[in-house]
# Entry
Amino acid sequence: MNVIELKDIVKSYQMGDTIVYALDHVTVNFEKGKFTSIVGPSGSGKSTMMNILGCLDRPTSGEYYLEGKNIANYTDDELARTRNQRIGFVFQSFNLLSRLTAVENVALPLIYAGVNLEERTKRAEKALTDVGLGSRMYHKPNEMSGGQRQRVAIARALINNPAIIMADEPTGNLDTKSTLEIIDIFEKLNQEGKTVIMVTHEPELAAMTQRILVMRDGRLTEEKEGGGQVVV
Amino acid sequence: MFRECVKMAFEGMLANKIRTFLTMLGIIIGVGAVIAMVSLGLGMQEKVKENITSMGSNLLIVMSGGRTANGQRIASGSGAKLTYEDAKAIEKNVDGIKYVAPGVQNSYQLVAGNQNWTSQVQGVTPNILSIRNYSIEQGRMYSQRDMNSRERVCVIGKTVADTLFPDGNAVGQIMRINKAPFTVIGVLATKGQSAMGQDQDDIVFIPLTTAMQRLMGLTYIRNITIQCESENTVSQVQSDVVTLLRTRHKIKTGDDDDFSVRDLTEIIKTAQETTGSITLLLAIVAGISLLVGGIGIMNIMLVSVTERTREIGIRKALGATYHDILLQFLVESMVIGVTGGTTGMILGTVISVIAAKIIGWPIVVSILATIISVVFSVGIGLFFGLYPAKKAALLDPIDALRYE
# Structure
């Protein structure tokens, strides 16, 4: 069963007189429960792909089915709700709010889902314990290491039990040890049945995933089976 | 959601304490200034009104017109046209009148013992005390019976009493007015200066009949003081008096009056208009400072939105809608407005009470100005917060997330 189906997706920008295609007629499916990586050089359209998959942006044309629903024509508010309920984001630069504690950061999506404070805190505490941060729940991001911050971000991505987890260069700012820890968590989540899509430019990380999509000039040029094994 | 927004707003404000305080200060000063200025203005108005009504309120004064002798016009009040009967006729025939007091006056030398003093002697009916808001401190006022028998009695003001009878105990003593002996039967309570700067305690009242027939030798009177029942009857009474006197004096249509009627309420109105416009001016200046405070809010909110672009991007990526972000920033600017407005209200009230005490004006805290300025400060928070909040809510999540 496919969680996401992209049909003939085009994303173009007007740059002066010429039209630039960031995504050029991309058609691809993402299977439920699979750990996929998207690789490619800078400017290949990886980020645009990520933004469209994550409902942060709308395609110029084409159809996007998320869990069977075409969301290409959703309004901004509907997209916001979709991001809130169905998608969990993990960013390269963590994107935590520095004023808030780990628990408050993790609980943030639940505010917009309309969950009350008591329930929010309970669920955020559990999510943090699951990623191994049970002892640092009331610390602020600047009191944590990069690996710990990214784990907070993962806990936040998981809090609303989303259909897919989108990770955009999740280990780009991390050292090797933390990178392995984070990939480990993704693998564990994948084994629990989560669909994970990760954008990366490190081939050895991509090699650990089950499926590798290679992008070049806004097109999907190659599809490989990854090893699904951690080899460093 | 609203509760979360208020919580977020307070967190955001506490993260930048000094900035929040300075922004709020603009509103505090604005609201405080409006309340203090309007309250002081109203206090001033009250004080001026008090001063003027101490002369007597709702008064009309009828004076006989000037004589014209060989083409020369001589001062009003010098003609011999008004009579005691005119005054009685007015009292009898015109509606809306409370008191009518015909009077004559002249300046005389007063002598008692080895002291002397020159003062205005007024021959007038006893009801002048009620009209002019005088009260008796010692002794009594002369009565209608004293009027009828033309008694040589007088009631004197505090200044006269203190000058002629430095030992006190003026009542019962003899005082000579223009060499004629009069018995002092009462001393007036002190009233101080009038709004015109005259000493209202430098005065001698004697019965009208005594003054006319035994002191001045007059058959006519100089003026008639009329106190109307209320402010609203003044102009009606004025025109009725004119009509009545024209008939009694047999003045043909088209000819000039041989008397004049002056409306003292005009003075009050003029004074109130003056103080009213001063109050308005003060309120406008203070209102402008409130507006400047509002612009301060907008300024800081715009800075805050730019500074927190990334935060807005994160919130949007996590599912915040346009309205969620709008509400967050609106609540923030309104919290500044409301907190500043309330603090300003307290400050303004305290300042106006203290200032009124120091200056000695009556304390008038304008409830209307208080309500208006507080409502206004909430409105200002809303109005000047709307543009920055909209700007924040309309941010594109991708651009906002990329913002460094």
Q: What stands out?
A: Chain B has a mean pLDDT of 86. The longest strand of chain B covers residues 97-112.
